Amino acid sequence: MKKRFWLVLLLIVGLMLYLEPFRGTPPEPDVSVNGTDIAVTSGSSCWNSLLNSKCIDLSDSTPLDMTAEQTPTVVKPGQKIEVAFNDGPAPERIKAEQWQKNDTKKTIRLKNEQITAPDQKGVYTYHVYAWWKKGDGNVAFPVQVK
To answer: Kind of pairing, strands 122-132 and 93-99?
Structure first.
């Protein structure tokens, strides 16, 4: 009987941790190119959890402002940049944009958790939005196509 109690208790605790009721922020994607991690900068977000609900408003900053202090990661023309949400629940919806220095932006395709780097050389900043039932968040990261 004691063994069964501990097994049930372990199962309940494991399920609670799996459902992440204590997460205070939305999951961030793991971004990489050829196995090399690319650092991301978090933007505005809202997240509702069992014990904590919080919004962070950084709406006055653009993705270019968000990444101004970051050194762009060098990529080759046409190279695949991996954008995977491995930590936490998978987003229900994702949107990606490509920004350039002159504040021009365009929506780009995120296909199979990948962004294809442009063929033209230059510095590009990517802005990735994600939505879940519990909230939303976004990150930005710069790359330099050489």
So the answer is: antiparallel
49 near 23, Cβ under 8 Å? Answer: yes
Higher-confidence residue of 18 and 34: namely 34
Residue 30, classed as helix, strand or coil, is strand
Distance, CA of 128 to chain centre: 6
Lowest mean pLDDT among 5-9, 15-19, 64-68, 118-122: 15-19
Residue 40 in contact with residue 137, Cβ under 8 Å? no
Domains of the chain: 24-145 (2.70.50.70)
16 contacts 50 by C-beta, under 8 angstroms: no
Residue 22 identity (one-letter amino acid): F
